[in-house]
Amino acid sequence: MTPGQIYSRLYRAYGPQHWWPGDTPFEIMVGAILTQNTAWPNVERAISNLRANNALAPQRIAAVHVRRLATWLKPSGYFNIKAKRLKSFCRWLMAAGCVHALGKLDTPLLRHQLLAVHGIGPETADDILLYAFSRPVFVIDAYTRRVFERLGMIAGNEGYETLRHWFESGLAKERDKVRVFNEYHALIVRHGKDYCKVRPRCAQCCLRTVCLSAQV
DNA sequence: AACCAGGAGACAT
DNA sequence: ATGTCTCATGGT
């Protein structure tokens, strides 16, 4: 069983996921930071608060006081930390000029720049690269590790970069990578939420037979 | 009523 | 390099 075949099964089972939820690249980037170890519905509440206060723009977030920003972020949890992270991200964005200016950087450089921002780690950087900048990077998250560990295809404790390169290599033709990586990560999360949780619910899972044959 | 969620940074070893 | 602690709200 290859990662490509798993993708086919997931896509057949769930269909297109239409990721990332968000109207603009900037909103997608904000969501990527706010969803760190946090359920998405809580992030939507926080984003609604930002929009209601006309604060869904880098200049506004950079200008507003952290204490006030934190009150808007409250529903998404870790609000004090995330207020700082959003501000440092927006400062970086403004220093670079704008989203369009950053779009001219090549992917390795842009990734390096993102990782240098306080509060942006490997997964958040790759969320932003893939879903806001349409770059061919594969996002590795807790669900990715869990699902593929249970499938017996990885050990689960590999380093982030090891797994990222493993998924990125040979999964799709060059011009299809962005579309496939986009859909694949969304499908993994969808599948993870429905069935492959900490306490799995394998009864109706579309990968159940694959998992069972891996249990040896 | 614990348990968990679309992680990352600080700090110790 | 690798492991542990902290951060916090809301749904199940």
Describe this structure in words.
- There is one protein chain.
- This protein is mainly alpha-helical.
- The protein has two domains: 3-17 and 140-214; 25-132, Hypothetical protein, domain 2 (Endonuclease III, domain 1, Orthogonal Bundle), CATH 1.10.340.30.
- The chain contains 13 helices and no strands.
- The protein has helices at 3-14, 25-34, 40-52, 58-63, 66-73, 79-96, 99-102, 107-115, 122-132, 142-150, 160-168, 177-194, 208-214.
- The radius of gyration is 18 Å and the shape is globular.
- The chain starts with a helix and ends with a helix.
- The model has no long low-confidence stretch (mean pLDDT 96).
- It binds a DNA duplex (13 and 12 nucleotides) through residues 19-20, 31-33, 35-43, 45, 74-82, 85, 118-124, 127, 139, 141-143, 185-186, 188-189, 192-193, 197-199.
